[in-house]
Please model this.
Amino acid sequence: MTQQDIAQKLQISRIKVIRFINFAKEQGLIEIKLNIPLKDSFELESQIEKKYSLRECSICPSFNSDSEIYRCASNELAEILRRVLKKDIYLGVSWSNAVKSVLEYLNFSRKIDINVVPIIGGLELDGFTTNSNIIAHLFAEKIGGKNFSINIPAVFDSSEAKNIIENERHTKKMHELAKKIDVVITGVGDMSVDGTAFKSGYFTLSERNYLNSLGICGIVNLNFIDKNGQEVKTDIDNRIIKIFPLESFKKLSNVICIAFGENKINPLKAALNGRVIDYLITDENTAKKLI
Model:
């Protein structure tokens, strides 16, 4: 009904109708959104959930525009978060271009007092917007509560430097906060030269070749995994501070993964095979290739 129709039916002014609707939206009592037909996505979602023992799979249409995919995925993410987030909960966030892009469109109807914790150290590249501190800050702004910052690199030039920082007070605090995390939002990294881990400048070409030689298919929060989703130990691990190791992911039941595109298929399959992920948000083209 139009606002004028509602006003006439309830015998109140149209201005009052507008005020009531605005109040209801602000309080999270109602939502107004466009429901886009998702073709055969319901069946595809069920197939993926069954194949990979997922709690939930959400599939967006593969629009021509990335921004439309991100907008649709932000609605799916909001629906999941409304169910899993509670007051004072600890939410962990990792590096991810996809997570950052979807987050920019996230519209959360009500604020919740939560704690947002980055679960991986910073990047050294200036202006690199997938930095986990930036993502944590944006999540706190969108959802509510406060965010923490992790003021250490993810990867060090030497194991000696890593060991020194590992024993610093701030690092120990981040490890303690990580133990409180109930929900994680992450992407998956691929082994291409354009992957976030390699674009950051932390790893050389020879190190990338070394990782490929070990049969590594994907990267989850700088945890290297094979095609079965099992962790692959590497010499490079000696230089990485792992605030949230792979076993921490597997202990949780609320790991939300956001990933789209051809280059994410192998790392996604690996993470799904290893039961690292509980909720998956992706697009239709990617989903079909997972099956």
Summary: The radius of gyration is 21 Å. The chain has two domains: 1-32, 35-290.
